[in-house]
Amino acid sequence: MPQKEAIRGRVTGLASRACALLAAAWLCLAMASAAMAQTPVQTASVASARVMPEPARIGAARLGDHGDKTRFVLELSRDAPFSILPDANGVVVEMEAALDAALPAAKGLVRAVAVRPGMKAGHLRLVLSTTGPVRVLLAEVIPPRDGMPPRFVMDLAAGRAGRGAVLTPASVSTMNPPVPAEKPKPTLPMIVIDPGHGGQDPGAIAVGGGYEKDITLAMAKELRRQLLATGRYRVALTRDSDTYIPLRDRPGIARAKGADLFISLHADSITSKQVRGLSVYTLSDKASDREAEMLAQRENQSDAIVGLDLSVQSADIASILIGMSQRDALNRSRRFASLLLKNLDPKIAVLPGPMRSAGFAVLTAPDVPAVLVEMGYLSHSQDAKLLGSDAHRKRMAGSLLRAVDGYFTGNAVPPRS
Ligand SMILES: [Zn+2]
């Protein structure tokens, strides 16, 4: 096994070095996989080829300031495919790996490093915000040697590279002089929490008394408290008090806040008193089942309660759903929904088939991953009692926090039992 790893490492290492000259670094991925496919060892070990390998783990991450360049280093458990993506505020490294290390503090040309979910499951994005325009001098995975683990190394220098340019140090000197970068983005992920209903719209009414609007607000505040306590997120609430906000305005708030994730909190109520448990919804123009469709209709009634014109809103939903053809935000929404179910505290009851979809007005920000969590049924006596309790609120928020952690780092902590 170690021998095989070494061969693979050398081949991909060569591919990576060739790429450093081309520096259109996404090519590295293609070249490295092509190189691996031609390795005889690969074709010989048919049995192991069928097994999905463990994702590479990033055991350490650091920045070094070398005066004329800033070096970004990741220590890897094994070679990992990566790509370098341009970003208005710096450079993005997309890598098939999971992060076990703390991210380094600002150094040299790098103002901050943040982690985001990657485009595919098992991928992550390291977002390097820089002090100004930078060019990538080199990006490669160095094979293990002298007892050192494989390392991803990327060198950045100040300046702007031309589109599709060859980023060797010699050629970049002829390019445009550095110009100040656009307004830098804050780097911590922004979570926007949306407590359902409010003001004139109480939402569902609990069997023992109490309103959905108060339960969702209390839950949103507890989730905000837990998220902020980690120091890893920024948090905004669509409402912080008992006020009415039209449904159609809520996705707009998420976009205006620059949300990386939008979580709408609700609790349902139906005539059957036996039904209980949590479910989580993503947006769809076709409801996953009749119940989901009815629920979306109930939740979408919110604006009708206070006399707003629903026909306008429906037109908005239709046009936004067409815009969803990119599917990216929706795929991310589904990923978060499934992480939430995986990370739920075992004490929280779950509805059968808990991952559902329907046309919820509140989930229609086209480029923001968004879920609607129905935390339980206020028509069920036990659910209603739990949703009003402090201990259950902490459990629920803790489950959401683990899902958020899993979504942004791929490192969800298993629930305490
Ligand atoms: Zn609701």
Q: Strand fraction band?
A: 25-35%
Bound molecules: zinc ion
How would a crystallographer describe the biggest sheet?
A: 6 strands, mixed
Task: Give the beta-strand count.
Answer: 15
Count of domains: 2
Annotated CATH architecture of the largest domain: 3-Layer(aba) Sandwich
CATH class of the largest domain: Alpha Beta
The CA-CA distance between the termini, in Å, is 37 Å
Output the structural class: alpha/beta
What low-confidence regions span 5 or more consecutive residues with pLDDT below 50? 1-50, 162-185, 309-316, 318-325, 412-417
CATH superfamily annotation of the largest domain: Zn-dependent exopeptidases
Helical amount: 25-40%
Overall, the morphology is elongated
Contiguous helical run count: 13
Strand order of the largest sheet: 11-10-12-15-13-14
CATH topology of the largest domain: Aminopeptidase
Order of helices and strands: HHHHEEEEEEEEEHEHEHEEHHHHEEHH
What Rg, in angstroms, do the CA atoms define? 24 Å
Mean pLDDT metric: 77
